[in-house]
Amino acid sequence: MSYAHLDAYSRLLRGAQEAAATGRVWPESPRSLIEASWRRSLAAGIDLEGTSAPLVCDLSYIDDIRRDHPLQPLLPLLAETVSGLARETGHVMIITDGQGTVLWREGGNAILRRADQIGLADGHQWEESDVGTNGIGTALATGRPVHVYSEEHLMRVLHVWSCSAAPIRDPDSGRIVGCVDVSGTARSLHPATVALVGAAAKLAENQLAVRMYERDERLRRRYESLRGRPGILLSPTGRVIAGDPAGRLGSRVPLWDDPDMSGDRLRLPADSGERLRQSGQRMVLRDGTVGLLEPFSDGYLLRTVPTATPPVLALSFLGERPPTVSFGDREQTLSLRHAEILALLVLHQHGLTAEQLSFHLYGDTGNPVTIRAEIHRLRAQLGNAIAAKPYRLACPVEADFLAVRRHLAAADPAALVRAYKGPLLPRSESPEIRRERDELEAQVRACLLRHGSPEHLWAYAQTAGGHDDYEVLERLAALPPTDSRSAAARTRLLP
User: How many domains does the chain have?
Assistant: First the structure.
């Protein structure tokens, strides 16, 4: 970009920033990457007059933090790739952890002194929520290499700096574990800088992958030495290494934190630390199988545990009677909210998060915290029937509205009128349940009008939906006058 173009862009940025600071409509916006970052930063309450990134790390422990960090063995590679350019151009090379905390840096004394003034130094954190738009924080927020030109920073003290940064993702856990950054006080870094840091990040990821495969191979050899190769072999992060040829786990569990990515990974329990290593832990898998997770070398073995046939969760949610549930040898009446939650989990067999449940129940005004509290109470009543992460039913289910669905599919009016006792949870205002209720009612009515006998239509006329149904009553009124059902139907048809 020429200096003339830089001057014009700088004027645009200053105007947009002044408008953003005063809450006015921006006259013009910066490029889309920066505009999105500004909006995130302003929503986080960034002070445009701030002077430094916060110190978040006790520097007396930083050597221990560096020693334990997965990027520590790769420092020579990163330094060879990036720090030479930084020294030659008077810039500073920064390596952070996955939260943007500076762990290592290299550069000349003059640039390091200037970096100290803004907290571009060991132990200081550079997430967008701390200092607003910047190379490190924005790369971590977007998950890709970025370049931030001087006045694209929101904090005015950073306007003399420009930076290029790229996140480094651990191929084992899938999480971002660090960021490599080149920053300097030149008005604009060389255009190749962002490509350089991106290449350095990819080299680091490739090296992490090589180390992961080497660890896997060592663990696999120990596993193969076991007689019969029992169980499924997992890495310390829950990644399937061996023993799962049918893909029972990988096909059901999301890989990393990206819902669009799927792979061979088991989400380990949150407390799979020292307690698990001492005693193992039972867990219910998504298909209802019970497994025992045990420590094995540097990873885990997941063994299936023979269990008795799990009890059936039986739900009666149709009609005006209070909703009930039976599980094992217990039957109880449910509150409307608990019945709604169970109905939604039946309708979404793969599970729902607290946020999704909240939306289905309350719409945009819902609060996931309320849902978590309700689930906690419901699990206290039903125990292992409800699994978590996401919330889902982990046992066989029988529900009266599911039986109605089966009879509709079979076009069996006799079985249909026996099963259909009325609308699904008629007092529920949940948008999702209302849709299911209306659709079920419409299909029952259509099936009985098409295939039902007078006996079937009369049974439907005793439900809330059929009591005043004009077409159903007309069919019944056409019966012989001596039929009591005809007289009752004519009475209901009277205005």
Answer: 4
Q: What is the largest CA-CA distance in the chain?
A: 107
Model pLDDT, residue 188: 61
Place of tokens 């889902």: 392
Alpha carbons 481 and 460: distance in angstroms, whole number: 20
**Within this chain, do residues 281 and 320 fall inside the same structural domain, yes or no?**
no
Residue-range definition of the domain harbouring residue 184: 3-209
The pLDDT confidence band at residue 187, using thresholds 50, 70 and 90, is low
Tell the residue number behind the tokens 């076991």, with chain if given.
226
Q: Are residues 286 and 258 part of one domain? A: yes
| Residues 260-317 pLDDT 10s | 333 567 777 655 544 455 456 777 665 556 778 888 888 888 887 766 667 889 999 9
Distance, CA of 160 to CA of 44 (rounded, Å): 23
CATH number at residue 194: 3.30.450.40
Mapping DSSP to helix (H, G, I), strand (E, B) and coil, where does residue 241 land? strand
Q: 358, 368 in Cβ contact below 8 A? A: yes
Query: pTM for the full model?
Result: 0.59
Alpha carbons within 13 angstroms on the beta-carbon side of residue 449 total 14
Among the candidates 280, 304, 328, a domain finishes at: 304
The residue from 304, 331, 347 where one domain ends is 304
